[in-house]
């Protein structure tokens, strides 16, 4: 049988499976906050096998706090589970949606060590946290529970990514949809899918990514297509700070705040962090991420 070039190309394309992964998803805003549910749906729609493991309550600003989960003395956030519920629990209609009555770090570890063997039969391929309600820029990473969860994953040997969006407030998963929710979920999935598509290892050992999105409104930055990603650094550099990876004609990356605060367009920052310190990675480590995410990275105007 003879095939034309176009048909053969299509057959070959269909024969190559898209890269997907086993993903643990957490946050610090709580398991019933709408952003994490949108992200769960987006990652799942992209073909990934996802399990959500997040705090029963809003645990924003708890950094890398860690404690043994306890029985709920009051209802979960947004009355998503009743008072007296066990320390760990799940949604009756979807057992992949799990809460942990403790901190983000504890929740992420529960997802990696307990839920992943149950649902995946092994450790997850990658761990993501967010999108956080509010940006996590610069020194804020030290107190962010979303960052704490991503850094914990990296400490556990699992590539971790933290996503945060400037727009939004604590909102129940049952609330009316607003533009920023779907935009942030789509952007977070784009970064995650691009990293997965780059092949393993997704990140060097002990590293995590800090991704921040600017404000979204009904008229500004209101579709994922309007966004560009820029490789950045978490902290401002001093005269004695070692050079960053060379890109965009410079060996000094812009700070996250500069990227997200850029007024001439919709720019999201992507910083490479060290899990043990939550500080910036070295130039050689940044270079690995530049190579993996290069096709979606851009330069500031």
Distance N to C terminus: 53 Å
- Report the structural category: alpha/beta
Helical coverage, percent range: 25-40%
Instruction: Please state the average pLDDT score.
Output: 94
The whole-angstrom Rg is: 19 Å
Q: How would you briefly describe this protein structure?
A:
The protein is of the alpha/beta class. Helix content is 28%, strand content 20%.
Q: What do these coordinates show?
A:
The chain is of the alpha/beta class and 301 residues long. Helices cover 28% and strands 20% of the residues. It has helices spanning 5-15, 34-45, 104-119, 145-155, 179-197, 256-260, 283-293; strands spanning 22-26, 49-55, 88-91, 94-100, 126-133, 160-165, 207-213, 227-232, 266-274, 297-298. A 10-stranded mixed sheet has the order 3-4-2-1-5-6-7-9-8-10, sandwiched between helices. Helix 2 (34-45) links the parallel strand 1 and strand 2. It is globular, with a radius of gyration of 19 Å. It starts with a helix and ends with a strand. The model is unreliable at 1-17 (pLDDT under 50).
List keywords for this structure.
28% helix, 10-stranded mixed beta sheet, 301 residues, single chain, disordered N terminus, 7 helices, alpha/beta
